[in-house]
């Protein structure tokens, strides 16, 4: 797992410098590991519930990625955030769980089954964004639009799209707090 | 939305927030404002230059600044998930303060101790230090908010130690109580009070 962590560090470094592809690659690399952690802890929530929690963890990672210090190991940072958000998510759902940090290293990445990767909560929250922001998030996420393409469809400049997308994610975190608590 | 779609959307967002410790810059105006307020309302002590040369009196400032610096160092780490947080510098300052207090207690004749502890300006000290601590502590809490503290209550308490310690160092420029029996007791009480309130605020304000 050590070599993998080094890769994560390189990818995340590039991501913080604005490399979208490296960032997507990083997120896809860590997602199965995080999914494994969430499912190991939250079997009672079912696969769909776990996916919601996983998406909350990813959203938190996204908004707090500037707290990773380039050159430091990724794993302690990643697991600290994951533990915090998983505990938070379960508490918000009325369950208290205890996560010893050692457990994370032993968790196997979870394989995805028959599309268990659909999150429901995130759709509700996107639905609460203002319509333009909601459309933008779906345009970029589901349709895979670039900033320029999304901008053309929404009649916004590329710069405005970037700012709007960032704001949308921040707003999603705020909504999530209100919605789940 | 599928997780993979969420990832694609997130990868499109290339706006990365600034490092949390950058917000510590707000400590400078916060402390400057406190200093100006202290100077204009209460005045600096007349014999400040002489007092600073007396090691026992100067320890008020050394201990307060030491606590503030140690707490700031810990705060920066508390803002970064997974970073190792070392609280021993804080413990060392606290131990130093208690040691100094005990030394002064033993050195002082029994009949003078109570007077030395109570002093003449206890109320001023207990009100002014928390007032001076408001803005610095707010600046430190803002730093933590920009970060991702996974132990919000501890982070808030340490933020209060930072703000309280720095505020006490500013207050020491006015205060004329030179005995550790006074300043360890009441500066310490004021700083711990700030820390407790800050921890309470952090419990809600630092959730993310």
Automatic annotation (TrEMBL), chain A:
<dbReference type="InterPro" id="IPR013325">
    <property type="entry name" value="RNA_pol_sigma_r2"/>
</dbReference>
<dbReference type="InterPro" id="IPR013324">
    <property type="entry name" value="RNA_pol_sigma_r3/r4-like"/>
</dbReference>
<comment type="similarity">
    <text>Belongs to the sigma-70 factor family. ECF subfamily.</text>
</comment>
<protein>
    <submittedName>
        <fullName>SigD protein</fullName>
    </submittedName>
</protein>
<dbReference type="Pfam" id="PF04542">
    <property type="entry name" value="Sigma70_r2"/>
</dbReference>
<dbReference type="InterPro" id="IPR007627">
    <property type="entry name" value="RNA_pol_sigma70_r2"/>
</dbReference>
<keyword id="KW-0805">Transcription regulation</keyword>
<feature type="domain" description="RNA polymerase sigma factor 70 region 4 type 2">
    <location>
        <begin position="121"/>
        <end position="172"/>
    </location>
</feature>
<keyword id="KW-0804">Transcription</keyword>
<dbReference type="InterPro" id="IPR036388">
    <property type="entry name" value="WH-like_DNA-bd_sf"/>
</dbReference>
<keyword id="KW-0731">Sigma factor</keyword>
<dbReference type="InterPro" id="IPR039425">
    <property type="entry name" value="RNA_pol_sigma-70-like"/>
</dbReference>
<keyword id="KW-0238">DNA-binding</keyword>
<dbReference type="InterPro" id="IPR013249">
    <property type="entry name" value="RNA_pol_sigma70_r4_t2"/>
</dbReference>
<dbReference type="Pfam" id="PF08281">
    <property type="entry name" value="Sigma70_r4_2"/>
</dbReference>
<feature type="domain" description="RNA polymerase sigma-70 region 2">
    <location>
        <begin position="32"/>
        <end position="96"/>
    </location>
</feature>
UniProtKB/TrEMBL annotation, chain B:
<feature type="transmembrane region" description="Helical">
    <location>
        <begin position="24"/>
        <end position="44"/>
    </location>
</feature>
<feature type="transmembrane region" description="Helical">
    <location>
        <begin position="117"/>
        <end position="141"/>
    </location>
</feature>
<feature type="transmembrane region" description="Helical">
    <location>
        <begin position="56"/>
        <end position="75"/>
    </location>
</feature>
<protein>
    <submittedName>
        <fullName>DUF1109 family protein</fullName>
    </submittedName>
</protein>
<keyword id="KW-1133">Transmembrane helix</keyword>
<feature type="transmembrane region" description="Helical">
    <location>
        <begin position="87"/>
        <end position="105"/>
    </location>
</feature>
<dbReference type="Pfam" id="PF06532">
    <property type="entry name" value="NrsF"/>
</dbReference>
<dbReference type="InterPro" id="IPR009495">
    <property type="entry name" value="NrsF"/>
</dbReference>
<keyword id="KW-0812">Transmembrane</keyword>
<feature type="transmembrane region" description="Helical">
    <location>
        <begin position="180"/>
        <end position="202"/>
    </location>
</feature>
<feature type="transmembrane region" description="Helical">
    <location>
        <begin position="153"/>
        <end position="174"/>
    </location>
</feature>
<keyword id="KW-0472">Membrane</keyword>
